[in-house]
Amino acid sequence: GSRHFPQRLVQVENFCSAQRKSLGATLTDTITATADFARLGYSISEAAELADAALVYKNVGDGINDISEASESVISTMKAFGIEAANVMTIVDRFNEVGNRFAISSKGVGDALVRSASALAAAGNSLDESIALVTAANNVGQDPEKVGTTMKTVSMYLRAAKTEAEEAGESTEGMAEILALTSGRVDIQLDENTFKSTYQILKELSKVWGDLTDITKANIMEMIGGKRNSNVVASLLNNFPDAEAVLEVAMNSAG
To answer: pLDDT higher for 230 or 199?
Structure first.
């Protein structure tokens, strides 16, 4: 309860000195990060572990100046993909390794997922697949925030989430036409009750992309990305081997 919170803050401060020394972080950042996680209901030991991850992420994420920004990225990713506090450092491992190997910073990966993680997870994508999608889509535009918004939109459209899409100012009519436009080669569903993941659909679509006419490509891009996001969708579909390479790196990033 709230009456116990001052006592929890005292416990937080007691944990922070050791954390600060081991991570080379400022005392203010350490207390802020740990208290932020404690406020979300995590135990003190869990909050300390989560704060460790946020502090490390701030250190490796070029351009992250605020510990709360680092914490937000960690929290949104954890919640979207159901990652337990004990495994939180695997998130930072992924962000860092992909940021070191591809044309996106570790901060950029986090920024993109803050805007898309929940939608991508709901659309059946793993964390590794989601990182792969946002990283590959970022190759041309180099705008992680726009990429994150686009991937949120794409994941909604491909699953015909009409209410959410209409709230975003777009229409989802015509989604069933993808099968026809690709001459029966790309079906967005496994069966009548189950959608494929966004990653799987786009992977299959990328395999036939070079065989489609410019008009067909334009129709599909507007269908799955909306009028404002077609360039990001095109970048992803034209460079999908990059997404496959990122997926492999993310899956083997532990430690």
So the answer is: 199
First to last CA, the chain: 36
Cα–Cα distance measured from residue 17 to residue 30, given in angstroms and rounded to the nearest whole number: 8
Instruction: From 52, 166, 68, 62, select the one nearest 109 (Cα to Cα).
Output: 62
Of 44-58, 64-78, 148-162, 198-212, the one with minimum mean pLDDT is: 148-162
Among candidate residues 31, 130, 115, the one with its CA nearest the CA of residue 72: 115
**CB contact set of 33 (below 8 Å; sequence gap of 6+):** 50, 51, 54, 55, 67, 68, 70, 71
Phi/psi zone of residue 228: left (φ > 0), alpha (ψ -120 to 50 degrees), beta? alpha
Report the mean per-residue pLDDT for the chain: 85
Handedness of CA 127, 109, 114, 16 (dihedral sign): positive
Specify which residues 191 forms β-bridges with: 194
Q: Which residues of 215-228 are buried (b: 16+ CB within 10 A; e: fewer)?
A: ebbebbbbbbbbee
The answer, yes or no, to whether residue 160 has pLDDT greater than 80, is: no
Strand partners of residue 195? 189
The pLDDT score that the predictor gives to residue 17 is 46
Q: Residue 99 in contact with residue 109, Cβ under 8 Å?
A: yes
Distance CA 3, CA 71 (A): 24
147 with 141: CB under 8 angstroms?
A: yes
Alpha carbon distance 137, 134 (integer Å): 5
Query: pTM (2 decimals)?
Result: 0.85
Q: How much is the average pLDDT of 97-117?
A: 95
